[in-house]
Amino acid sequence: MRNIVSPVNTFVIVGGGLAAGSAAEALRENGHRGPLLIIGDEQERPYIRPPLSKGYLLGKEQREAIYVHPEGWYAEHGVDLVLGTSVRAVDGQAKEVELDSGRRVRYGKLLLATGSSPRRLAVPGADLDNVLYLRRVGDSERLKAAFTAGARIVVIGGGWIGLETAAAARTAGADVTVLEHSELPLLKVLGREAAQVFAGLHEEHGVKLRPHAEIERITGSDGRADGVLLTDGTLLPADAVVVGVGITPNVRLAQQAGLNVRNGIVTDEHLRTSVADIHAAGDVANAYHPRLGRHLRVEHWANALHQPRTAARSMLGQDAVHDRLPYFYTDQYDLGMEYTGYAEPGGYDRVVFRGDTADRKFIAFWMSGHRVVAGMTVNVWDTIDTIRALIESGTETDDAVLADSTVPLNNLLS
């Protein structure tokens, strides 16, 4: 790393994921000409995480496809990559970050894009060697090695990561069981009718779903797991156990630096934190969303792509606001899904369907009164932008019109 002697216009990004790479690109595009550092604790240059549970895990994408930029991009744009290095502390008053080596780097502006970490399973045996999580590229490669024909895979957690890894394991020919705490996978996220679509999808592909599962411990010997024991006495043999029970934002640096932390690093709509000249973006940011009128922490790829662009402009003194609706997608077997909007439990009245849920080709609309607050397409393409516009416009419509596939969605826009 070069010795930084001009701290006033030195911008530092802490984190090594998509948010970091996107921010660096946006800073250069929007006119930052001073020193720019990305400090990441992995040896990899910034990369995108969705392929780790999708194309890369399935062997459909090569390793090079996961990176945000080609290897030479950073040198070409004057971005210093400081990899394999952790930041020990942030001093907001001195405007310095302290590295794990003890070295201090001064900054003019700082972006915390520290992301999140998988929530760890708190049962006996959870530390055995082949209890696997998915967050980093090495994790994906360990899963890929474990997903072989005939392998017995137990997945703990029926969220997006759990179901995507279950689909990858089943596609590889493994014997897969998914343990879900509630009645259906994704029930809290999607509601009953949409959740049943995903449950049916996995059952049709031979995945065994066990609802209301309570785990007593993970069994094993010689340091390796060989099964999952449930509280009802059921023992599920396992060659590997995959844990996907949520993630936790990496807020240690922010807390120690005295930033406002509440379910992530609290920011305004400009991605500014409570401490001057420190911004936050990506999984770790609990940002005020002016369109939704509340703070929101979004753990998805699109947020890590778009939010840092606002943060970069804000760091440069421009009046930039992040008000893009949340978006995420999934690919499982032959099902492709896109979702946009925000519909928390209790934040909508009902779900209206257009198309055939049995054939898994439909659109779902989450409704509050006569307005769409979120929409999901399943194996229906080139409509998500129209759904986003429908939500943003606040257009009022009737359920019967939304459900009628003969009425083009564009016709519903004011």
What does this structure look like?
- This protein is of the alpha/beta class.
- The chain has three domains: 7-117 and 248-315, 3-Layer(bba) Sandwich (FAD/NAD(P)-binding domain); 131-245, FAD/NAD(P)-binding domain, CATH 3.50.50; 334-412, Enolase-like, domain 1.
- It has helices at residues 18-29, 50-53, 55-58, 73-76, 137-146, 160-171, 187-190, 192-204, 252-256, 301-315, 384-393, 399-403, and strands at residues 11-14, 36-39, 79-82, 87-91, 96-99, 104-106, 109-112, 116-118, 131-132, 152-156, 175-179, 208-210, 215-221, 224-230, 235-237, 240-243, 247-249, 265-267, 278-280, 285-289, 294-296, 327-332, 335-341, 350-356, 361-368, 371-378.
- It has a five-stranded parallel sheet.
CATH names the topology of the largest domain as FAD/NAD(P)-binding domain
**Biggest beta-sheet profile:** 5 strands, parallel
For this structure, what is the CATH class of the largest domain? Alpha Beta
Cα end-to-end separation: 54 Å
> What spatial order of strands do you see in the largest sheet?
3-2-1-7-19
Which spans of ≥5 residues are poorly predicted at pLDDT below 50? 1-5
| Residues in β-strands, percent | 25-35%
Mind telling me the C-alpha Rg? 22 Å
Q: Which architecture of the largest domain per CATH? A: 3-Layer(bba) Sandwich
Number of domain modules:
3
Number of helices: 12
The tally of strands reads: 26
Structural class: alpha/beta
